[in-house]
Write a structure and sequence with these properties.
The chain has about 350 residues and is an alpha/beta fold. Among the domains are: about 10-150 and about 320-345, ATPase, nucleotide binding domain (Nucleotidyltransferase, domain 5); about 190-255, Nucleotidyltransferase, domain 5. It is built from 13 helices and 17 strands. It has helices spanning about 45-50, 60-65, 85-100, 120-130, 145-150, 190-205, 210-220, 250-255, 260-270, 275-280, 295-305, 320-335, 335-345; strands at about 10-20, 25-30, 35, 40-45, 55-60, 70, 75, 80, 110-115, 140-145, 155-165, 170-175, 185, 235-240, 240-245, 285-290, 315. The strands form five sheets. It has a five-stranded mixed sheet with strand order 3-2-1-9-10. A five-stranded mixed sheet has the order 13-12-11-16-17, sandwiched between helices. It has a three-stranded antiparallel sheet with strand order 5-4-6. Helix 5 (about 145-150) packs across helix 12 (about 320-335), helix 6 (about 190-205) packs across helix 7 and helix 6 (about 190-205) runs antiparallel to helix 8. Residues about 1-10 have low confidence and may be disordered. Bound molecules: adenosine-5'-triphosphate (ATP) and magnesium ion. Adenosine-5'-triphosphate binds next to helix 6 and helix 7.
Length: about 350
């Protein structure tokens, strides 16, 4: 196959995008990169327009002004909601905003690869392509774990597990573009941990007042699985006064709650793969997504998989940008004919 790539000439801006449930990231061939929380909001009425002074807001700015906004999360449970025009528009606006953040020149053609949760790849890729076709020259939608694998050059005998907010996505790489059979999605991910932790804390400290946002912060600052020497103490108000609470057991229990389904899916996928390669895949497992930052995750998974044979796990270096980086590398290496063919679709 001819491997001529479109070079990063100034006439083309290549971008890699990771469209996620909780946050989305972009990396571009002009050296810029950025990320935002995946929220889009439109002012509810003319008072709101006066307050927020913008036709549409994104990310943290949208979250902060949520009372004035009709606020949307384009992805939920790993898929783009496609019910209404507003929902389609929220994906379009989010991708448009991400591209604006990397500042293409007016004359530049934008050639984008967008990584989406594996489930969304199955059901939404045409809708996503349509939504953004007005402002990109060409777009390819891929599953996010595939983008991560590409960026790390893990194209053969590897398993990627992407632990996000809404979903955990699994993808086996075996030397070709992964098919639907090579990918699985489960819903016990970061948001699930938050719900477990919220319930455990409500049960143990009925007098204390906290909200979902605080609980997620407790998790992100202290997450761990397995045996940790450190006690986790946080301040939570009781009758208005901040009091120190020991939440070590609750953090451990809630973080560990996502692992039985992860281990079950992982072992099922490996067991259904060609027996000659099972050992190689088990020894080449990479965890991506921001959930990969749970302390002790590597040892915990290796230990749990021991009964199936030796197992080696590692985590990506930059979980926030690993998907977008991989998508950009893929965009830059994509043979020219692919882009040309796509731009005519
Ligand atoms: N240090 C941490 N420890 C544990 N979890 C964390 C940590 N930092 C972030 N998270 C969690 O990771 C999740 C977000 O991960 P990520 O940004 O990869 O998801 P996403 O791509 O937006 O979601 P999805 O892949 O489901 O669409 C959230 O649940 C967040 O609370
Ligand atoms: Mg993700």
């Amino acid at each position: 196959m001819q491997q001529e790539s479109i070079q990063s000439k100034n006439e083309n801006l290549f971008v890699g995008i990771d469209l996620g449930t909780s946050c989305s990231a972009i990396v571009a061939s002009n050296g810029t990169k950025n990320w935002i929380e995946s929220y889009v909001g439109w002012p509810k009425d003319f008072i709101a327009v006066k307050v927020v002074k913008k036709p549409v807001l994104f990310g943290m700015e949208a979250i902060k002004n949520r009372l004035s906004l009709d606020i949307r999360k384009p992805l939920e449970g790993g898929v783009v909601k496609e019910g209404t025009e507003k929902e389609a528009e929220s994906v379009r606006e989010l991708i448009r905003h991400l591209i604006e953040m990397v500042k293409p020149n007016k004359e530049q053609k934008v050639l984008a690869i967008v990584g989406v949760p594996a489930e969304s790849f199955k059901v939404n890729r045409i809708a996503i392509r349509k939504a953004v076709s007005d402002f990109v020259h060409s777009i390819i939608v891929v599953s996010e774990p595939f983008a991560v694998a590409y960026g790390m050059n893990l194209l053969n005998n590897a398993m990627i597990i992407d632990i996000g907010a809404g979903t955990v996505d699994f993808c086996i790489m075996h030397g070709t573009i992964p098919s639907e059979d090579d990918q699985r999605t489960i819903l016990t991910a970061g948001d699930y941990i938050d719900r477990q932790l919220y319930n455990l804390l409500s049960e143990k400290f009925p007098e204390s007042t906290f909200n979902e946002n605080m609980v997620r912060q407790f998790k992100e600052n202290n997450s761990f699985v397995g045996n940790s020497q450190n006690m986790v103490k946080v301040k939570i108000p009781v009758e208005g006064k901040p009091m120190v609470h020991n939440i070590t057991e609750e953090i451990k229990k809630s973080c560990e709650s996502i692992f039985p389904p992860i281990i079950e899916t992982l072992s099922e996928m490996i067991a259904s793969f060609d027996p000659e390669y099972q050992n190689k895949i088990r020894n080449n497992i990479v965890i991506a997504g921001c959930g990969s930052q749970i302390s002790g995750i590597v040892e915990y998974l290796e230990d749990a998989m021991k009964e199936y044979g030796t197992c080696q796990v590692k985590t990506v270096v930059d979980p926030l940008f690993a998907g977008a980086n991989g998508a950009l590398t893929m965009a830059q290496e994509m043979p020219k004919e692919y882009w040309e063919k796509l731009s005519k679709i």
